[in-house]
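Methods: holo model generation. Sequences were used as deposited, without trimming of termini or removal of tags, and paired with ligand SMILES retrieved from the corresponding compound records. Each pair was processed once, and we did not select among multiple samples. The sequence and coenzyme A SMILES for this entry were:
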Amino acid sequence: MQVVDFDLGSPPEWLDAWHRIDVEVALETLPGLEPPSAAESRGELLGELGWRRRGLAAIDGGELVGAVTFQEPLLEDLDMAYAWMLVDAAHRRRGIGARLLDASRELLVPDGRRRLHSSVLVDSPAAAFARRAGGRITQIELSNALDVTALDLPALRANAEPQSPYVLASWVDACPDELVAAFADAHTAMDDAPRGEPADASAWSVDRIRDQERCWADLGFTILTVAAIHEPSGDVGGYTQLLLTGRPSTAVQEDTGVVRAHRGHGLGLALKCANLLALVEHSPQIATVVTWNAESNKYMLAVNEAVGFRVRSRWEEVSLAL
Ligand SMILES: CC(C)(COP(=O)(O)OP(=O)(O)OC[C@H]1O[C@@H](n2cnc3c(N)ncnc32)[C@H](O)[C@@H]1OP(=O)(O)O)[C@@H](O)C(=O)NCCC(=O)NCCS
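and the model returned the structure below.
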């Protein structure tokens, strides 16, 4: 068994195997939910302005039997990397995960990365693996899902109206030019989402937004965004995004954030309700929305619960000193 570099230029059969294992692990760890699309698995390796993405593959007899992908922030948190490690179920408990982890250290430490973060299902083989490797649990994350077919549409409509002086703007895919600078600034709202560990302030710019949009377009994703505009200042007070990633009937919740100065006006609920209405209209085939939230994020969880999200499973966020 060899550990080799893994990227979008790797043999197509390795990329296919990565997606197959990604699907198998999703069916194992998130039963009842649609697994990731091929584009989502490929997206683990597609870099953008804010993130370097690359990986390492375990190759046995020419076949990919496990791999780890890394997401290294390039504009903040330069000492850390996120990892997603998968070993084919038929090849587990043979030291492949441990070999991939050793190779991860060799790859990342010379680049200044000192902390490796990941998420593991509570009480799973991965949780045992992370514990044995010395990973520290930083927080609990909840996997939540919403049954779109059971939405109370009149209630959503009633809640989708923000108070004056806020108005909602919504768009599909690229942010309109006249809003994009304010939209980039509003991304700092996400800095207050619980991270379990100290983290740098994020550095967003128009270029970074445009590059993220390019990356999502390259993967064939459709993005539905609703933003709350504070009319007197023109600021984006908050925003929420849903991604259509190619799963037949599931949409993926991306960021929802309200900038600190604009909190306390019910914008979180209004944004979510408005975007769910946009989703129902744009993509009537979508039956489920999936999202992840820190267990300690009581405001976001209250909004999600109010619109109908329910907890499906509990995950540990782990941090490993490299
Ligand atoms: C987590 C995972 C990658 C581990 O891969 P692996 O190749 O089986 O791991 P290793 O054989 O190198 O195991 C190393 C050590 O981890 C621990 N471990 C791994 N699997 C375990 C299990 N099922 N039960 C208890 N301990 C386990 C053991 O201490 C093991 O050492 P040992 O076999 O000498 O006792 C694999 O279980 C997997 O793909 N799980 C699903 C994917 C996932 O959830 N990934 C998220 C993590 S980023």
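The longest helix spans residues 12-29.
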